Amino acid sequence: MVLLAHIREQFALSNGTYGSPRMTVDLRADGLACGKHRVARLMWDNALKALQKRRYKKTTDSDHGGPVAPNLLDQDFTAVAPDQKWGVDIS
Where are the alpha helices (DSSP H) in the chain? Predict the structure, then answer.
């Protein structure tokens, strides 16, 4: 029960991001004798699962110095004759 109280405290201090390996290191640094499997079992039994936040990945560079092609169609896709306007989907 004492170990579980320390686990819950460290889990709350880490904002729910510490899993059992990191938790074991922290508990041992605090002077508690515990094994990695025991910490993992106690966390599993008490539904303390670490959740890592996903890192933001920038996929578009809109602030580049390259040339930007002009919008010639301006969303007007009607054509007078065939083979006048072409469109592509780059996805």
Answer: 2-13, 20-29, 36-45
pLDDT at 43: 94
Does the global pTM surpass 0.70?
no
Cβ pair 48, 58 in contact under 8 A = no
Residue 11: closest CA among 55, 53, 54, 46: 46
Sign of CA dihedral 73, 58, 17, 21: positive
Round to whole Å and give the CA distance between 18 and 22: 6
**How large is the C-alpha radius of gyration of the chain?**
28
| pLDDT at residue number 27 | 92
Give me the residue label for tokens 């508990």.
Answer: 27
C-alpha span between 15 and 53 (Å, rounded): 11
Question: Scanning the structure block, which residue is given the tokens 């059992």?
Answer: 20
Burial class (CB in 10 A: 0-12, 13-18, 19+), 36: middle
